[in-house]
Design goal:
homotetramer; about 350 residues; alpha/beta; Alpha-Beta Plaits; TIM Barrel; 2 domains; 15 strands
Chain lengths: ~350, ~350, ~350, ~350
């Protein structure tokens, strides 16, 4: 942390800042220039924040420097992590490219199985599907709940695909974890800290979507909440941010992938379905995600998108899926990545 | 809802849309132009959404028209509502202007009482104070919990001010409601739907902050989640939205006050402390809030902001408070509003 | 400027930065902490920028501190400036509140005169009106050009109101200045630097609208472009910024008024018509603008908004104008401001 | 265009709207529902806009439907266009992938030649370089002007690479066009309509950068301004938009490439240097741009970035360039694109 004094700040004002920092157990280094002085602080940043040095007389600005996340930071853990999902240990990490696919919402056993088979044919090694759906409107379809979880579990039995599914309520974490292989935190819960802590304690891998208006730093801080409870099996998921552009539902921030990889040792995947909100963008955005360096993608598929109860307009149908399958076969190998196949039990 | 067909869409394609809508219990009205046809839909909009008409051949665009919220809408409830808080029934509504003030976080009995007395001297008739604090970083001060609630309760006893305090977890709703007179939902939980439903069931007034990236429509929809559970004692709170501008912590969207008043019958207040994040902006933004038509404001005060554990830089001190007291006395009367005094038991 | 070195940066790396800064005529002060070193720079910031110190080995971050604008800054000119417009010297500044009103676009002599009389009746002391209109679409009405300027000049003759009008092209600056009393730079030209320099040289007061996506710092820097050419008669105009919210055309950033007043000595006014884009918001936003401390407002009026060639939906009609007149009479006096009446020749 | 009437609008109100539209030469089709009526309009949309139907009694909303650009639209020109640059006719279009590279600013003949040779070695077939630089601060380096153009022309002579360079002032368009093979319009001039018209008349290909806060629709409308003056040799360039995220200078909107390709027949390229503003992001974002379907990229290179006068931190150096060369050789072929080699005179 650096304290910038105003031009003309007095020695007494500078001394007051130094005294407060020292009192709080930190060290303060003063640099005097012609126009103004600068004070460098070393020690416990969170402690310094509590001092409210910005309000001291003569202080012009307080500049924070150290990264505020620790456990997920690459600073003390430079090697990239791989997260393994399910009994068959499907990897998500730096050496592989993993396709996660399935229906946005679980509706019926038939629809879910059909979607899973489409996903698997396209190269998916993990199944996504929503049993609990957070919806902006209370009048929209909210998911089948435990019935949906049971369907997902049956489809895992039938296809061998481990299951990724969202949890929206602390009270449901144990229930969802008893069925799922990986718990998803959705964009609307990106700063629901009690939920983050709850999934941090349950001992299953977590797929953490970026809040639609979270900075990359806030996203990593959300991951830190999970990590702090003892769970480092976290996969970050970029899914588009909210901007002024309305041609797409959100703006896919592909730069977030290399930026997050640079700051944290966690895998990063991309959701090309929810970011664009348009079926015709899913394949191009999937290519962009692979090319920018994502460790995987998560894609909506549906056997009959025109009757889907949720986000049908963005679900891939058969023809698109064949194109996606080709993309997933060809592009990752250019970046030295193998398919995200299960390692086996 | 209006369906816009692409130029050159065939009669069969138009008929398919009409058939689907009719089948779903709606009515469809076709208007044919030289270049393209337009289909107006009448009936259950939510139902129509499920049809995914955007994916039908020949459909260029689907335009939603009806407002998606119902219970909080002025369409069927044109008169503005007043919400009464506490046993002494402090009003928030169209005829009054209510000042809510207190410390961002409850730290000690002394600090809370001192802040409450400052607030009261400035004209506040409700006390704010955080016992549970949602913080971006897991390393930041998270609040005193139940101890904080007890302090708030004691200070209510001493000052007569009803208490507004935040709840961040479904598991705490009953506990918080047993101490507080009004439950606050913070900006990070603006789309935590299970929490919204839980406070909707507990039967106490709710202060619903706008999500920092929620549209006004999404904010009203969040209110609808509460209303749906039988609680219409909801006060909306504009607290700044996330934009590209970095001179202020958030951008206070004053236009949201008249826009929300136009759409919903709920009171709307403004938080000038958290929107600007700067002490020097609190009084000017308070004046703007009153002038634009807000039904109240909620302001941070602290007896010793330089040692505050949370958001000290924006807390008002004595001198500013006297200025605020003058503003709160003078400006609302120009708009025909009386002070928000308790009606008595 | 402060250089933050990475943890573990070597002495040689620190020395290299110091050497480069010294070579460039600056001074460098090194503070060493346990984890990392910080280097404070004193001297010519623009020069330092050219050094690209961010690219030096061991450098983690470069933090800019000094304000980058000079002539418009309050740092060396703490007293607020008043700008006088027209031969009758209508003031815009800290002691007055000035209402500027008129039609968005000049259409006919009759419409312009009628609008000017409406404006004057409401208390306006300056007339606005567009002869050159920058429009997003090349197919939209682009203004009457010199014919429009002549109409404005005739209406000034008839009413005594000095004229504010927009210039969109360097080639037109002399022509527009020969008719107008104040030149307006619109939001789309907020970073058209050659146009800013051209109006800086012409010797007439300038009304500088904020770019719809300009930060406050960029806005002041645009003013600096004008000031650098010898013209300090600049009035800043906040007119809404581009955000994710779509209920209003733009989001009026009222906080920008006190923030700009804090940084620059220039007057700041607000455009409540173009920010909201809705007639029903003009009066509430005008009240908010006055209350937050604006030195004036600029408002669209039109005798027949339903046939206006430009932005009719936001133009005030008779009834609203009477309300606005009351507001402009009552609110500024609470803040100690007199009406912006001409001082006389 | 669709007019949505308020619930309870009277027949007389509906008739008034229909009468006005018919009077203006359009056709109006009324659909009556249980709750409200909808009126579909067919005819000249721009004309309808002028009618300000939103202000008519009983009108709740006006919804625009038709695309507002014509000449650049794919609606009447479904085949994608190829633009040829320079005497040797370097193509930018659907069958090729074209690398444009060079220094952000022309500084000296040696630096420019060295950068051009680096660019060519990496596979570039067009040279970029700024002689006129629009800078936010009037105190920053503004470019060498005509001296810079002469250097670019000499380097073209030496290397055979056609030259792309920015023009910032209508007064310079002829001068710049006399040296350059392609004129660039920068992001700050994206709505400088007189400049757009001027380059539309000069008869050289234009590289049109997206405004940093332009919607895709506004960007295409800017292209329409150029096209209207008889020049359809326009290449669109996505260069990042302004959002709340601050880890990157701007947020590269890769989705804009397929969206613009879907709406307009013009080639679309990407600028990975200015969007990220960080050297370490240039190669990953270049890969993403190719993969999403861009027709080319434009990249900053500099022989000595640590002494660059402009944007050094993002300029590629030798090692990165070799990586970029590999990417440009491998990725486009997966999408069936050949290198953008000159066709020859």
């Amino acid at each position: 942390m650096v304290i910038v004094m105003a031009p003309g700040a007095s020695d007494a004002q500078i001394d007051a800042v130094v005294a407060r920092v020292t009192e709080a157990g930190g060290e303060a280094f003063v640099s005097r220039g012609d126009e103004r002085a600068i004070i460098g602080l070393v020690g416990d940043i969170d402690r310094f924040h509590g001092l409210n040095l910005r309000t001291y007389p003569g202080v012009a600005e307080v500049v924070r420097i150290s990264t505020p996340f620790k456990l997920v930071s690459r600073q003390h853990h430079p090697a990239m992590s791989t997260v393994y999902v399910g009994e068959t240990r499907v990897p998500i990490g730096p050496d592989t490219f993993t396709l996660i696919a399935g229906p946005c919402a679980v509706e019926t056993p038939e629809q879910t199985l059909a979607a899973a088979e489409m996903a698997q044919a396209a190269g998916a090694t993990l199944l996504r599907g929503g049993a609990f759906k957070p919806r902006s409107s209370p009048y929209a379809f909210q998911g089948l709940g435990e019935t949906g979880l049971r369907i997902l579990s049956d489809v895992r039995e039938a296809t061998g695909l481990p299951v990724v599914t969202e949890v929206v309520d602390v009270a449901d974490v144990e229930l969802v974890a008893s069925y799922a292989d990986m718990l998803q935190i959705g964009t609307r819960n990106a700063q629901n800290f009690t939920l983050l802590q709850a999934v941090g304690e349950i001992g299953k891998p977590v797929l953490l979507k970026r809040g639609m208006s979270s900075t990359i730093e806030e996203w990593l801080m959300a991951a830190e909440y999970i990590a702090q409870r003892g769970n480092l099996d976290i996969v970050l998921c970029e899914r588009g941010i909210r901007t002024f552009e309305k041609a797409t539902r959100n703006t896919l921030d592909v730069s977030a992938v290399p930026v997050a990889h640079d700051l944290a040792h966690l895998p990063v995947i991309v959701d090309p379905s929810h970011s664009g909100g348009r079926r015709d963008l899913v394949v191009p955005l999937s290519r962009a995600a692979i090319a920018v360096g994502a460790d995987g993608i998560i894609v909506d598929v549906h056997p009959h998108p025109d009757t889907a109860l949720c986000d049908g307009p963005q679900a891939l149908v058969d023809g698109d899926l064949r194109e996606l399958a080709t993309v997933v076969r060809q592009f990752p190998s250019l970046l030295g990545r193998a398919p995200g196949q299960p390692l086996g039990v």
